[in-house]
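Posting this for the archive.
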Amino acid sequence: MALKIRLQRHGASHRPFYRMVVTEATARRDGRFVEVLGTYEPQAKRSDDEIKLKLDRIDYWASVGAKPTDTAASLIRKARRQTPAAATAEESEA
């Protein structure tokens, strides 16, 4: 059973909304999945709401052999770059 980390498309026409999921490689794009790892909303009003991922769960699934697609890998890199900035901003407020 080969696992992939990929996007499922949801939302209305011209208003896409994606879920990042772990699924079997043979499953359909919007078909069965193992776990939801987060969301991606490219047309979000605020850039903070654009990508919301559970990076600890992504690391877990990568450790057991799940391979991210090119787009998913790109979004994961982007989320990792945003996370330290958000953590430092919270520390400076306290």
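The helical segments are 55-63, 70-93. The first strand starts at residue 3 and ends at 12.
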